[in-house]
Amino acid sequence: MAKNYCMKCVLPIEYEQTFLNCTSCTYTVHESCFLKLENNTLEGSKDNWECNFCRNKNASTSIPIEPYINRMESLLQRISTLQEEQEGIVNSVINICNAASGELVDSINFLDSRLSSFQSELDSIHENGKCDEQELGISKEEEEKLLTEQ
């Protein structure tokens, strides 16, 4: 037959000694070791004894969890609200970017049309070879001087 050992003093438990067996686990201890440890007192029957670990574990299940559940639900609601706000912000940024890109496209198109008109004016000047004083903004003498320098 296998000997039981005290979980506190690690000495074998003899049959004539008083010992305690936890009803929830395999914890076994001499009654004297248990009573010496942290000024424990033996409450209730020795036959229905639980070690501190099992007693605390079983007691922890009796703690009301409703406040924690309420807090969790409150946090989940706040997360949901923050997600909705985030989606609204993202949509606003997308709308602003779309509007800005539309304005940018309009500006680019306007500049492109202006550039095309300047290019066509420049091409007509090159085709004609000469232009009048009003088109260039310089006098005929200055124009001839520039042409001879080239």
From TrEMBL:
The keyword Zinc-finger is annotated on this UniProt entry: yes
Membrane-crossing residue ranges in chain numbering: none
InterPro entries, alphabetized: Zinc_finger_PHD-type_CS (IPR019786), Znf_FYVE_PHD (IPR011011), Znf_PHD-finger (IPR019787), Znf_RING/FYVE/PHD (IPR013083)
Highest taxon listed in the record's lineage: Eukaryota
Gene Ontology molecular function terms on file: zinc ion binding
Keyword set includes Zinc-finger: yes
Alphabetical keyword list: Metal-binding, Zinc, Zinc-finger
Protein name: PHD-type domain-containing protein
Protein source organism: Rhodnius prolixus (Triatomid bug)
